[in-house]
Amino acid sequence: MAIAYTCPHCGKKLDIPDQYAGQRGTCNGCGEAITVPSPMAPPDLPSVTFSSSPPPRPLPLPAPRKTKAKAWGDLTNQERGGVITCGCIGIMFFSCMGMGGLGALVGDDSGISTSGPSATRSEARLTSPVPVDNSIEGKIRRALGSSNRNVEKIETIRITKLPEGNRALVKWAIDDNLTRGFIISGAQGDVTEILQVFKESGERIDELHLRGTFAMVDKFGNSSESVVVKLAYTGSVVDRINFAGFDRGNAFEIADVQSVIHPEFR
């Protein structure tokens, strides 16, 4: 479902997919910064008025027929045979359950019992919660999610401890989007998420290097995944960020060492 939006700067009408609601980008008409609004709520359904009259009373059920139990001496030979057969089947059932479960009753010779400690352990495995990966890599993967292109979202997450200091490298794929402005805004959002994970991890990182890739087409018409954002941050810069008030649009600008940004992503 598309969001109908009119640029407040140039008046151009845009139809934007609702998956980009709340994101920032630039108008492809005038290039001014815009924010995609949330989709309109569905119209209220008409109210339904129910009758205040009481529901019809159910018809009375016929009274159950009372039958008198017969004494053993009053039963016919056929009735006595049925009682004896039912009793024997019941005795066999409970005896087999005590000797190995339902498999013994139906003649299963596989040696697998449907009851006992092994079944209890299996049920426990099915109901055990999946452990959450709280490492830096696990948190980054959860923060960035999956790619909307036919590539892996995360290519490399590596932390190297050296005598001169700890260095970290993250290489990820930038998502595609509706306009160039939205693509850049998404890349800045990814960088902000990565920086926040490293700051909140408490692990000392002296240099953090980020490499963002995107499918670029050369002058011969060939497309290839290329590094378009190459950023580096010192640990002191990461420590200064207050993410409660940080504007992700500044994520590229605060990089302070060895940073290279492709012209299409500036």
How would you describe this structure to a colleague?
- By secondary structure, the protein is α+β, with helices and mostly antiparallel strands.
- It has six helices and nine strands; from the N terminus they run ββββααααββαββαβ.
- The strands form three sheets. The protein has a five-stranded mixed sheet with strand order 5-6-7-8-9. A two-stranded antiparallel ribbon has the order 1-2.
- α4 runs antiparallel to α5 (180-201).
- The longest helix has 22 residues, at 77-98.
Q: Rough shape?
A: elongated
| Global structural class | alpha+beta
> How many DSSP E strands?
9
Mean residue pLDDT: 79
Number of helices: 6
The poorly predicted ranges are 102-116
Tell me about the biggest sheet? 5 strands, mixed
Report the oligomer. single chain
Instruction: Enumerate the strands of the largest sheet in spatial order, edge to edge or round the barrel.
Output: 5-6-7-8-9
Fraction of residues in β-strands? 15-25%
Please give the share of residues in helix. Answer: 25-40%
Radius of gyration: 35 Å
How are the SSEs placed, and which strands pair?
Elements: E1 2-6, E2 13-17, E3 24-26, E4 33-35, H1 77-98, H2 102-106, H3 117-127, H4 136-144, E5 154-162, E6 165-173, H5 180-201, E7 207-217, E8 223-234, H6 235-240, E9 260-261
